[in-house]
Amino acid sequence: MSDRKSHFIEQIIEEDIKSGMSPKSLRFRFPPEPNGYLHVGHIKAICVNFNLGALHNAPVNLRFDDTNPEMEEIQFVDAIKNDISWLGFKWDKECYASDYFQQLFEWSISLIEKGLAYIDSQTSEQIANQKGTPTQPGINSPFRNRTIDENKRLFLKMKDGNYQEGEHVLRAKIDMTSPNMLMRDPIMFRILKKPHLRTGNSWSIYPMYDWTHGQSDYIENISHSLCTLEFKPHRELYDWFLDALTPLKSIRPKQREFARLNLSYTVTSKRKLKKLIDQGHVKGWDDPRMPTISGLRKRGYTPESLKNFVKKAGVAKRENLIDVSLLEFCVRDHLNKVAPRVMAVVKPIKLTIKNYPQGKSETVIAENNPEDNMAGNREIPFSGELFIEKEDFRENANRKYFRLTLGKEVRLKNAYIIKGEKVIKSSDGTIDEIICSYDPLSKSGSGTEQSKRKVKGTLHWVTRQHSLPITINIYDRLFSVPEPDKNKEEDPALNINPNSLEVANGFIEPSVFNSPLGKHYQFQRLGYFILDSKNEKNQLVFNKTVGLRDSW
Ligand code: ATP
Ligand code: MG
Asked: What residues flank ion ligand 2 with Cβ within 5 A?
């Protein structure tokens, strides 16, 4: 093994191996509920499990935790599989908790027979009222001492669909005075007359999370069931349910917990993300402003950058808030190495070089990626009629302004040195066009004295004749406060940033003409962008991934 410092879950497993566990019996799982798309927090859980699998050459199952038929959909199953594959991970078996419904039903009967489970016929409200509080013990249900035969008879009738929702539940008979509220006779099965995405109408009772998860781990021979800290109090119940199945015939799974990933300016709860879609704040699960894997992909994030981010965020025992700028740093860092450079003008203004021969054009040479010496060069057309960035010109500028102004020189990247001469304005005073002169001997790379002259500013540009019109989606943070989900009761939509999307119309150099969708670029001086789609006019649409520097 490498000398990289291992995280505490890795250490737990090392300890288990030292104390006699065979490395061959290691097996992990990632267990999403198919009730929404995976988000950045899930990437952490995916990496923790799949990286452990890789480290120990152990299989990792993908298990759909599909016990809430009302919330779950096949489109979410498909999206989850697609996202994990895109990240570059391969699961061993594709499993579904619903494949274990019959087994869970049979184990429930055996718990009834051992006197460890009973049918409660109170309303959910009555049950809740008897639950007590963390400082006050609960009260036993009046149905707690039903006979085994009566419990069995009622449970079979529940299964056969003879009762309405809420009429009865199956509860574990544990301890209504336990300091752990979860141990106060938790519900194991409830009646739900809802079709299930996989089992259809076969079942009218469905198992609860706690009565499903550990048993699914046991069935699949999972050695370490890794989950987030909020499940820590569930561990006692996880173990109680396994004890209730004794004697166990195969490996006994262990639940171990690590801290969730919390990210600033971000909400990571499928339920709350769904609400943002339903309320129309974003266009869908894969909106590039969403922290979902599919949103991040459409925004231009790469699998490498996301996995590196999770690695940098670390696997900790305590909750913390990771700054979203770390996520942005990681994608910038990766794209800097791999994204070809191109020139695009996002908010254009016309620039005309008055002493450049009319009708003439030539080519200039540009480096594709100075960070990658295999990337080579390309030719870009140049002429006297250009677009530059509106923000790169000021009519009245002080001495510290190093972009274009009247009477001063700047370099057009890869091309010539130009000087601002005058502006042409429309009747309302806005500038329509900048007129410049150029120094014909100053061409970049020509080796002349003039080409070596130092000027303070370098601007990107495209020609009006050769460039392609593009649409650019420019995103800002979806939320305007660092912890939009801090107050769990409050609707995060209250903190939404109303200006999180700006659509601009610009121009790009012609070399991108035949690029495949999904290709990443650095627009020089502007940031990283991904070719997202073509619009109805067959023009290229780009999404801005991130700026060149942290602007926050
Ligand atoms: P959500 O509240 O978004 O629905 P969840 O925990 O209910 O999240 P699941 O589909 O049940 O979502 O989660 C699958 C796995 O991913 C679980 O093991 C869970 O602990 C883990 N997970 C979920 N959110 C995070 C997070 N923010 N950081 C790390 N792991 C997470
Ligand atoms: Mg969940």
From this structure: 33
